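hey team, just a heads up i'm posting the complex here instead of the shared drive bc the drive is being weird again. everything in one block, sequence lines first with there labels, then the predicted structure for the whole assembly after. its two chains so it's a bit long, scroll down
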Amino acid sequence: MTKEARDAYRAGVPIFIGYVPAAVAFGILSKGCGISLLESFCFSALVFAGASQFIALNLLMTGMGPGGIILTTLLVNFRHFLMSACLSVKIAKTAKKNIFLMAFGVTDEVFSVLSFKPGPLSSKFVLILESAAYSAWVGGTVAGYVLGGFLPEILTKSMGVALYALLLAILLPEIKQSLKALLIAIASGALNTLLIKLDLLPHGWNIIACIFVTALAGSFLIPGEVKEQAYE
Amino acid sequence: MNNLIPLILGMAAVTYGPRLIPFLLMTGRQLPPRLDAFLKCIPAAAIGALIIPGVFSATPAMPLAATSGMVFTLVFGLWRGGIIIPVLGSVGVTYLILFFAG
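-- predicted structure starts here --
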């Protein structure tokens, strides 16, 4: 195995660990909503976007029609537009032919790992990492649907912290080197808290507004570079 | 329940579109420095908003449990770095607190 493939698998492990319990929860919940195993599988295999899948189940239960659910999904998942924009400039020239496949796997966590990976992103690294995330998400969904709560409840609950810990662990080397990254991250979290309290924007737009406003303000107001070589 | 496949395909399309379009427009292009500086600030901004305030309801019955898990990640991450131990350790700390105090 090349070093690059090994790095990709290692980067994939924490995402895998974080996704399985969330996917199991989705499988269990979707069964409880009375949808078929095939439909539950298709949700995870074709949409592959955690938060929006849970929201869709909620909206289905309230009796909302497909138009409203699809529109909500667009709003909730539109943050990936900003994330893909950020990643698109880091893609290696040789990887350009694989963008259709790579773009499918841009989740919050995959994005976070990729965005702090030093140097141009090769297809191999991106696709191995995305496959780890995808297999955990789809496999966990089916396992949850078929087996129900096979993990002890307290363990499932505690694994809810894993994805947040992953995001923090990815960010830490960055903020150790760059005060700018620290200021941006804190400002963005503070703004998000405020926007959620105010409850003015439709679901999903709070986070888009936070990313857009804070990144824009950061790029204008705070001098210096956010370095890329921090995450190993 | 009705057939959900059309709904799922619709959701898949509006999720994939925003993920794909920037790659089609921007991959391999030379970007203006302003835009480049903005894009470089997106990771920190995204991660900040993804963590806060969501993490404080990651263990809704007992927010202290998830918060303690994150403190472990923070301390270990700053001290030794890495990803796997900070993540597994945070789950372990959260588990212990939920188990003994929950």
